Amino acid sequence: MSARLSVNLNKIAVLRNSRGGDEPDLVRAARTCLEAGAHGITVHPRPDARHTRHDDVLALAEVCRAYGVEFNLEGNPFAPERSGYAGFIALCERVRPAQATLVPDDDAQLTSDHGFDFVRDGERLEPLVQRLAALGCRVSLFADAGSDVARAAAIGAQRIELYTGPYAEAFAAGHAGTVLPAFAATARAASTAGLAVNAGHDLSQANLGAFLDAVPGVEEVSIGHALIGEALYDGLATTVRRYLAIVSGR
After folding, report:
1. Can you tell me which residues bind 3-amino-2-oxopropyl phosphate (predicted)?
2. Which residues carry out catalysis?
3. Which of 79, 86, 157, 181 has the fewest beta carbons closer than 10 A?
4. What pTM, to 2 d.p., does this model score?
């Protein structure tokens, strides 16, 4: 089964914000990715507006609707509303993304670096999962390998997204085989619980194929940092097509 590719555009927003203004243009980047064949667009607007912002979410939702592809909105559902940030649930109510991916990050984190503890967080997550589902969003929960994914299913999620940072680190160190069994076992446990499986974080052209070969049933990968970095050398459309060749080769 081929996985689907959703391109995360946060890093393009970081570059734009470093200078101010509108360049590089996120909408143009999204269109380039989609015209190259990407199956969807992902962004993770943070309360601190470090990269994608409220206005970006509105614009990219329109692009995805125009192209008939999925918009995946990531965020921390517990982050409070503040100036310039309406809150993750409010953003979802505004744009109704095809998928809402809940992630337990906070302002102090440079990037997402762990999944939910579903035993600890499940009671707080459940009403938010139900609220998002009522909007028509497919709800995915960020999960570590080895986590209690059956609990994620019990609170109403349709998917988990495996946090693949530890895999990318192990791959770079030459011992991916020590961590892949835990990811594969978690994916199988998710399937048994009725959950579909996504994956993301530090996946790249170098390590993606080995991950998909070892971990069964991955339906979608969300890739941004490596893809945008590689695109600086080879071009955005070319890089997207190279990732599509990897995911379609499964």
Report:
1. 8, 19, 202, 224-225
2. 44, 74, 201
3. 181
4. 0.94
